[in-house]
Amino acid sequence: MPFREIRSCFVTGGTGFIGSHLVDHLLSGGCEVRCLVRDRRRLRWLQGKPVTLLEGDLGSTGILREGASGVDAVFHLAGVVAARSREEYFSVNVKGSLGVAKASLEASPPPGLFLFMSSLAAIGPGRTDESMDETREPRPVTDYGRSKLEAERQLGVIRDLPLVVARPPAVYGPRDREILPLFRLAGRGFVPIFNPEARLSLIHVEDLVKGLVAAGAGGKTGEAYFLAHPETVVAARLPELLGHAVGRKVRGFRVPGAMLKASAAASETWGILTGRMPVFNRGKVKELTASGWVCDLERSEKDLGFTAGIDAMEGFRRTVLWYREQGWM
């Protein structure tokens, strides 16, 4: 089995939700960390930490090469989850990823690992009774998922790139703003249910970053790994789990498909007018109403020795506690 000692690394997306948790985890293990920073106004989670900041974006070839030079690993997390068009998703998630990979190979010396954080969305949903493994034929249903899949494919054919791919499902936890509205609604006593029979894999961000490092240390070059908690959550049970987290009775209400599509269209229009695209769009409706998003974790358990330890009940509780401490709900 491969084992890579990661003592130094270059992280893209380190100012974000998942990336900032990854930086914290790497620092706690004594790792030297460099971060690509596109916008200095987004340094909240990195403030005061012993991190080398390199200003640039996914098109800054020289900065990317500098960041990757001499480190043990590149963790490429930067990307977009909401965009105005298919072209924008592909420009950032595919073209940007290729730029980071090529700059890494040109680094002196190049890193021994290039970890690309993809998504379960690249594979697409399964049947209600299906547990999908990494060999399952991809059928993404959104432009986001298609862009992640195309990035995987194009990175996979770059000669000499020491690529390992991580595919998490829905990620939640402290610092996350995408799922925050769901927790806020639960605090008021109700949550929307889009498909009560849907079965879901989830992962708390603290587990995910441990899984990313495990994939970096032990993942086989050229392989992809699902990183999720082994618990399967049935959507109909979300009111119970969220109610336990917020400390009150929470009722679920079924959202009619027509209402969901109309809301998504309105959300997209608002995004176009304001220039700030929301994660909730018409493509997202296909994901929310799908029957199954369940990962088979045999490969990650066998190759990486990784098993996520925070189940949904405990993870939701921790998330709500943090939101309340921060005044977010």
Name some characteristics of this structure.
329 residues; alpha/beta; Rossmann fold; 7-stranded parallel beta sheet; 14 strands
Structural summary, described in words:
This protein is an alpha/beta fold. The chain has a domain at 8-176 and 201-231 and 292-311: Rossmann fold, CATH 3.40.50.720. The chain contains eleven helices and 14 strands. The chain has helices at residues 17-28, 61-68, 86-106, 143-156, 180-187, 205-218, 238-246, 257-274, 282-288, 298-304, 312-326; strands at residues 8-12, 32-37, 51-55, 73-76, 113-117, 163-167, 170-172, 190-193, 199-200, 202-204, 224-226, 233-234, 251-254, 292-293. The strands form four sheets. It has a seven-stranded parallel β-sheet, with helices on both faces. A three-stranded mixed β-sheet has the order 12-9-14, with no helix packed on it. α2 (61-68) crosses α3, α3 (86-106) packs parallel to α4 and α7 (238-246) packs across α11. It is globular.
Fold blueprint:
Elements (H helix, E strand, L loop, with lengths): L7 E5 L4 H12 L3 E6 L13 E5 L5 H8 L4 E4 L9 H21 L6 E5 L25 H14 L6 E5 L2 E3 L7 H8 L2 E4 L5 E2 L1 E3 H14 L5 E3 L6 E2 L3 H9 L4 E4 L2 H18 L7 H7 L3 E2 L4 H7 L7 H15 L3
Parallel strand pairs: 1-2, 1-4, 2-3, 4-5, 5-6, 6-11, 7-10, 8-13, 9-14
Antiparallel strand pairs: 9-12
Briefly, what is this?
With 329 residues, the chain is an alpha/beta fold. 40% of the residues lie in helices and 16% in strands. The chain has a domain of 220 residues: NAD(P)-binding Rossmann-like Domain (Rossmann fold, 3-Layer(aba) Sandwich), CATH 3.40.50.
